[in-house]
Protein backbone atom coordinates (compact mmCIF):
# COMPACT_ATOMS: atom_id res chain seq x y z
CA UNK A 1 0.00 0.00 0.00
CA UNK A 2 1.14 3.53 -0.73
CA UNK A 3 -0.48 6.05 1.62
CA UNK A 4 -0.58 9.53 0.12
CA UNK A 5 -1.07 12.36 2.60
CA UNK A 6 0.32 15.80 1.85
CA UNK A 7 -0.73 19.46 1.47
CA UNK A 8 -3.21 19.73 -1.36
CA UNK A 9 -1.71 21.32 -4.49
CA UNK A 10 -5.01 23.16 -4.91
CA UNK A 11 -5.03 24.86 -1.52
CA UNK A 12 -5.85 28.54 -1.12
CA UNK A 13 -8.02 29.85 -3.94
CA UNK A 14 -9.34 26.37 -4.80
CA UNK A 15 -11.00 25.37 -1.50
CA UNK A 16 -14.45 25.24 -3.12
CA UNK A 17 -13.13 22.32 -5.18
CA UNK A 18 -11.07 20.47 -2.57
CA UNK A 19 -10.15 20.33 1.11
CA UNK A 20 -6.78 21.53 2.44
CA UNK A 21 -5.01 18.16 2.62
CA UNK A 22 -4.79 15.54 -0.08
CA UNK A 23 -5.27 12.00 1.19
CA UNK A 24 -5.45 8.83 -0.87
CA UNK A 25 -4.21 5.27 -0.71
CA UNK A 26 -3.06 3.12 -3.59
CA UNK A 27 -2.69 -0.65 -3.31
CA UNK A 28 -0.86 -2.80 -5.85
CA UNK A 29 -0.80 -6.57 -6.29
CA UNK A 30 1.62 -8.28 -8.64
CA UNK A 31 1.31 -11.94 -9.55
CA UNK A 32 3.63 -14.02 -11.67
CA UNK A 33 4.89 -17.53 -12.16
CA UNK A 34 7.82 -18.61 -10.00
CA UNK A 35 9.12 -20.83 -12.81
CA UNK A 36 9.35 -17.74 -15.06
CA UNK A 37 11.34 -15.84 -12.45
CA UNK A 38 13.73 -18.72 -11.84
CA UNK A 39 14.36 -19.47 -15.53
CA UNK A 40 17.95 -18.30 -16.10
CA UNK A 41 17.47 -18.63 -19.88
CA UNK A 42 14.64 -16.08 -20.01
CA UNK A 43 14.71 -12.30 -19.67
CA UNK A 44 10.93 -12.01 -19.29
CA UNK A 45 8.18 -13.28 -17.01
CA UNK A 46 4.41 -13.54 -17.05
CA UNK A 47 2.88 -10.76 -14.95
CA UNK A 48 -0.59 -9.82 -13.74
CA UNK A 49 -1.28 -6.64 -11.80
CA UNK A 50 -4.11 -5.37 -9.64
CA UNK A 51 -4.49 -1.73 -8.61
CA UNK A 52 -6.87 -0.14 -6.12
CA UNK A 53 -7.10 3.53 -5.22
CA UNK A 54 -9.23 5.08 -2.51
CA UNK A 55 -9.23 8.85 -2.83
CA UNK A 56 -11.01 12.14 -2.37
CA UNK A 57 -13.33 13.50 -5.02
CA UNK A 58 -11.57 14.82 -8.10
CA UNK A 59 -11.40 18.62 -8.09
CA UNK A 60 -13.54 19.15 -11.19
CA UNK A 61 -16.44 17.48 -9.32
CA UNK A 62 -16.64 20.51 -6.98
CA UNK A 63 -17.49 18.23 -4.04
CA UNK A 64 -15.20 20.03 -1.57
CA UNK A 65 -15.30 18.30 1.81
CA UNK A 66 -18.61 16.51 1.22
CA UNK A 67 -18.82 13.04 2.69
CA UNK A 68 -17.70 10.30 0.35
CA UNK A 69 -14.71 8.88 -1.48
CA UNK A 70 -13.88 7.43 -4.87
CA UNK A 71 -12.91 3.79 -5.24
CA UNK A 72 -11.00 2.59 -8.31
CA UNK A 73 -10.20 -1.06 -8.97
CA UNK A 74 -8.38 -2.20 -12.09
CA UNK A 75 -6.48 -5.21 -13.33
CA UNK A 76 -4.06 -5.88 -16.12
CA UNK A 77 -1.44 -8.17 -17.51
CA UNK A 78 1.86 -7.92 -19.30
CA UNK A 79 1.67 -8.41 -23.05
CA UNK A 80 4.60 -9.48 -25.21
CA UNK A 81 4.63 -6.36 -27.37
CA UNK A 82 2.39 -3.61 -28.72
CA UNK A 83 0.87 -5.93 -31.34
CA UNK A 84 -0.53 -8.04 -28.48
CA UNK A 85 -2.57 -5.10 -27.19
CA UNK A 86 -6.20 -5.60 -28.33
CA UNK A 87 -6.90 -3.93 -31.69
CA UNK A 88 -9.66 -1.66 -30.36
CA UNK A 89 -7.28 -0.33 -27.67
CA UNK A 90 -4.54 0.25 -30.24
CA UNK A 91 -6.96 2.19 -32.47
CA UNK A 92 -7.89 4.57 -29.64
CA UNK A 93 -4.23 5.03 -28.61
CA UNK A 94 -3.13 5.73 -32.17
CA UNK A 95 -5.94 8.19 -32.87
CA UNK A 96 -6.23 10.04 -29.57
CA UNK A 97 -3.13 9.32 -27.46
CA UNK A 98 -0.10 8.84 -29.74
CA UNK A 99 2.17 10.03 -26.92
CA UNK A 100 1.65 6.58 -25.39
CA UNK A 101 2.88 4.64 -28.41
CA UNK A 102 6.37 4.60 -26.86
CA UNK A 103 7.63 4.56 -23.29
CA UNK A 104 9.36 7.74 -22.12
CA UNK A 105 13.17 7.68 -22.12
CA UNK A 106 14.88 6.37 -18.99
CA UNK A 107 16.41 9.83 -18.40
CA UNK A 108 13.06 11.65 -18.69
CA UNK A 109 13.27 14.55 -16.22
CA UNK A 110 9.77 15.98 -16.67
CA UNK A 111 8.04 16.67 -13.34
CA UNK A 112 5.21 14.41 -12.27
CA UNK A 113 1.77 15.67 -13.37
CA UNK A 114 -1.25 14.65 -11.30
CA UNK A 115 -4.96 15.19 -11.86
CA UNK A 116 -4.71 17.89 -9.23
CA UNK A 117 -1.76 19.81 -10.67
CA UNK A 118 -3.25 19.60 -14.17
CA UNK A 119 -6.60 20.90 -12.89
CA UNK A 120 -4.79 23.83 -11.27
CA UNK A 121 -3.17 24.72 -14.62
CA UNK A 122 -6.57 24.62 -16.32
CA UNK A 123 -8.15 26.86 -13.67
CA UNK A 124 -5.25 29.33 -13.76
CA UNK A 125 -5.48 29.51 -17.57
CA UNK A 126 -9.19 30.37 -17.27
CA UNK A 127 -8.33 33.26 -14.95
CA UNK A 128 -6.00 34.85 -17.52
Explain the overall architecture:
- The chain has 128 residues and is α+β, with helices and mostly antiparallel strands.
- It has three helices and four strands.
- A four-stranded antiparallel beta sheet has the order 1-2-3-4.
- The radius of gyration is 19 Å and the shape is extended.
- The model has no long low-confidence stretch (mean pLDDT 89).
Question: What key attributes describe this structure?
Answer:
3 helices, 4-stranded antiparallel β-sheet, alpha+beta, 27% strand, 128 residues, 22% helix, extended
Estimate the strand proportion.
Answer: 25-35%
Residue-averaged pLDDT: 89
**Care to count the β-strands?**
4
Q: List the uncertain runs.
A: none
Strand ordering within the main sheet: 1-2-3-4
Biggest beta-sheet profile: 4 strands, antiparallel
Ends apart, CA distance between termini = 39 Å
Q: What is the CA-based Rg, rounded?
A: 19 Å
Number of domains: 1
Written as H for each helix and E for each strand, in order along the chain, the element string is EEHEEHH
Helix content: 10-25%
Q: With helices defined by DSSP (H or I, 4 residues minimum), what is the helix count? A: 3
**Shape descriptor:** extended
The class by helix and strand makeup works out as alpha+beta
